[in-house]
Amino acid sequence: MRLKLFLSFAAVILVTLLSVAYFARQETVQQVRAFIYRGGIYGAEGLVDALESYYQEQGSWEGVEEIIETPGKGFGGRAGASQGSGRGQGGAGSQTFQLYDHRGSLVYDPHNSGIGGTIEPDQLNAAVPLVVDGLTAGYLYSPGSQQFTGDLETSLLERLNRASINAALIAAGFALLLALILTVFLLHPVRILTGAVMKMKEGDLSQRVDVSGNDEIAALGGAFNQMAATLEGEQERRQAMTADIAHELRTPLAVQRANLEAMLDGVESRSDENIRIILEQNVFLERLVADLRTLALADAGELRLEFRKTDINSLAAGTVERFQQRARQKNVRLTFTSKNTVPELESDPDRIEQILANLIENALRYSPEGGSVWVETGAEKHAAFISVRDSGPGISEEALPHVFERFYREDASRSREGGGTGLGLAIAWKLAKAHGGTLTASNHPEGGAIFRLVLPL
């Protein structure tokens, strides 16, 4: 990762520097050649353009001295132009100019000397040709300018190339050093995160990383911390569940063994009552295994649901009727009401009945003698609901977040006197989720706990 990041920085830097060096060289070559082409006359571009335009309009050089000697008329305002007014300066610094026609005859001289003379060959090579409509109309010559040969041009361009390359290399060195520093700086949190991941790989799920800022690295660190917390919690819950299963299995097995040994030793008779005790423990074990299997299938996403049209009111009324005998035995009043008409919905009625049965059984377990359990159905917006409320002591604030956890019991002794496997609410929550619904628990304002199952219509 470090090498890839460094190479990415280096590639961007090198491409940028090479591009700058290339275009700078091209521009420099163009300017140097233009300067050499004009015989070293710098700043005379405006005068050349003005003279070419004058000849194109007039067809001759007659009266051209007005263009050369009048300040600003030839090329006033052009870059490099002087605003002086000396004769023959043409605005090009302190240079003086001579104008020759296409045959090389002198047309204009600021000192009015040599009019009618001809241009010398060495002067012709240093003069600037004035081209009009593709034909040479004359030559502009500056006394004192020099002729640049091809060797001089090549030597100058080589020097400029070396200067550009040296500048690019120096800049690339500093840029690569900066890229290396930035790479180390940017990868520091990644190295810390990698170290934490390696420790997690060895089994230490308590690893966390410090998160600061709001960039992608900070988001990655936050996601890692959340994942580590989830894995650590899952590990703790798995260990607790293993201990809980062992606890739940040990008690009925111990009761069965004790009764069987007592009957074999002759301490207890082989009566129907003693056999009934063993059978009850066996039924409990069978129910516990079935509940564990249901949870395992739900966790693996392999719990099969057979959806069909379901009348929630009829299903709830039948389930409540099935629990009436148990409610009378405990002297608890169990009632069912329907708040409004509930449309039929697509669900697995057997699983919905299992949820409701677990909720009613839980409510009867915690309702005191002479208390009440209320089951209500209804529809609101795009969902149907079933609520089960009891008149028990309610759920403590500490226990509310844990009521749907497996084997969770609010009492510290984990008493099984009330019956149940400790998995009923966990199974109910899983089945509600499998239906695309929700199951929540809260305390009713008038007392007792209320569980609410919401299913989409």
Describe this structure in words.
With 457 residues, this protein is α+β, with helices and mostly antiparallel strands. Among the domains are: 216-299, Helix Hairpins, CATH 1.10.287; 308-456, Heat Shock Protein 90. Helix content is 52%, strand content 14%. The protein is built from eleven helices and eleven strands. It has helices at residues 2-37, 45-58, 65-69, 121-126, 150-201, 216-264, 272-299, 312-322, 324-329, 349-366, 424-434; strands at 98-101, 106-108, 128-132, 135-141, 308-310, 333-338, 345-347, 372-380, 383-390, 438-443, 449-456. The strands form three sheets. The protein has a five-stranded mixed beta sheet with strand order 6-8-9-11-10. Strands 2-1-4-3 form a four-stranded antiparallel beta sheet. The radius of gyration is 50 Å and the shape is elongated. The two termini are 51 Å apart. The model is unreliable at 74-93 and 412-417 (pLDDT under 50).
Structural key phrases:
457 residues; alpha+beta; Helix Hairpins; Heat Shock Protein 90; elongated
How would you concisely characterize the structure shown here?
The protein has 457 residues and is α+β, with helices and mostly antiparallel strands.
